[in-house]
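Bumping with the actual sequence this time:
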Amino acid sequence: MTEEIKTDVLVIGSGIGGLYFALHMADHAQVTIITKKESCESNTNWAQGGIAATIDESDSTDLHIRDTLDAGAGLCNREMVSLMVTEGPEHIRRLIQLGVEFTRSGSDNLDLGREGGHSRKRIVHARDFTGQEVEHVLLERANNHPRISVLEHHFAIELLTEHHLHVKTNDITCYGAYALDSRNRKLKKILARTTLLAAGGLGRVYLHTTNPSIATGDGIAMAYRAGAVIANMEFIQFHPTALFHPKANSFLISEAVRGFGGILKLKNGQEFMHKYDKRENLAPRDIVARAIDSEMKKTGDECVFLDVTHLDPQKTVEHFPNIYETCLGLGIDMTKEMIPVVPAAHYSCGGIKTDEFGQTSINRLYACGETSCTGVHGANRLASNSLLEALVFAYRSYTRIKENIASLHNDTGFPDWDDTGTVNPEEWILVSHNKKEAQQVMNDYVGIVRSDLRLQRAKRRIEFLKEETEAYYKKTKITTQILELRNIIKVASLIIDGAIMRRESRGLHYTTDYPRKDDKHFLIDTEQRSF
């Protein structure tokens, strides 16, 4: 039997976008947040660098817009970028009013950092654990709000649309979602007037990633299966500097370390970034990641190094206490020795295509944060624009939904989840093996440097894994592991197909078969839709 829950607004995900939206929306409607793990676990919580905002007198919105467009390699939606940059500072002020304690320089002014691709200091941060600080404050507020319910360990399975009523239509509407309570394997049907997908990123599609274990692309996969338009999936940002250590789990060494004065070097101490870009260590992430990849292939080394030993040790520890303690716990004193680093999958610039209010191509379905594709990042995200984007468009979704929430209903009669004929899972080795194989395929063939040959190999292997996994899924009772595997494979397929469609090199997508940009044919988004 499937339990039925009715709510005004369903939020899937508990990162900065979902929580910020919920706190505003709850003043006008009942909000239910579902999150598949503990509510504090999200990509937001792992974000170290900060939030980009034009606050300093020496800065301007025009400069921030220019930097964003430059990083985006011609594919940014200028109007969306302007909205984000112009409205961003107000949301920094709102976070401060909510209780977020950003690092200050003196008693009054915010301590602004600078990261790769930025022409000015504009990174608002809470030392090197900004995401954790923001997440903590928003989550505490949400938990104490009488009109917000947070359901932990609830995995969204599928969005509720007319297709579950066996109605064929191109004008699709979302009425909520089916969900699984993973603690007791109880199935739930959540009916909502409006749904916001804020389900985070997809880094775990790759073997090496800076993302937490929950980042398996669930929101994008669900929306695609429901019929939403998905865009620009080929643009996967590889963070240039993940800590290279067997016990580090690709721990992120923030871009802010290079902004602080860190220098990338080979193991012999030789600098190399001057060979790739005039901005050297402050070049955008795609350039830095490819430069590191190139140097590693030339030398055969497993990693390169980030050197801050020439900087004031006390200031280094003060600015990066979390990074310092993590490195020290692994036997690396960053004030005395170079930090070994490698690129790792970090952020997806593509996702569910939305308009300026976060509305997707499906009625009553909105998306924000890394799950979405608003157009602000184009072919490459400018550092620290991600949390800014989540805040701005989560709030814009709230303003639009608030206007018409009262006129919508949540009483459509959907059937219970049908698992007739399924059996309890037995072949766990298949789930584990297929997940690792999919991640390895993506790492080997759809990484920083691509080619037609590599992409076609990846497509064949992922297609085989998809067929095997779908057959297993149809005969087996649902578990979070099976759901995650299914979503990983679907998202991997979307990334590969997007990369095959884009027969040029632009931003984060670099292919040896088409090494140059082609504005004549590809100054457009790559779009995919299931029907």
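The tokens above came from a reply further down the thread. The mean pLDDT is 94.
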